[in-house]
Design a protein that fits this description.
By secondary structure, the chain is mainly α. It has four helices and no strands.
């Protein structure tokens, strides 16, 4: 897979949470939802340097693993890597 280090760990945590929490109950507890949001925000920052929109977060909570995989695929297609994003934040 194209994810490494912290990014891979975060993706694994999200995948585990989505797999374990939602399917059996059909919904996340408020604590699970908050934890999922934090993981996704951190993961998205590592991947693209941006925060996921509320609609992206909601679609993942509702769509589970399929929605998460679609979001990862979308981020993989974005040309701005973390390193490039870091360079854009530094003064010239």
């Amino acid at each position: 897979m194209w994810l490494h280090g912290t990014t891979a760990r975060l993706a694994d945590e999200v995948t585990e949470l989505l797999r374990d929490a939602a399917p059996e109950r059909g919904a996340f507890s408020p604590e699970e939802s908050a934890h999922l949001n934090l993981l996704l925000v951190e993961l998205c920052a590592h991947l693209t340097g941006r925060t996921p929109s509320e609609s992206e977060l909601q679609s993942i909570r509702q769509g589970g693993l399929d929605a998460f995989r679609a979001l990862l695929w979308t981020y993989q297609q974005e040309p701005l890597t973390c390193l490039e994003w870091e360079r854009t934040r530094r003064p010239a």
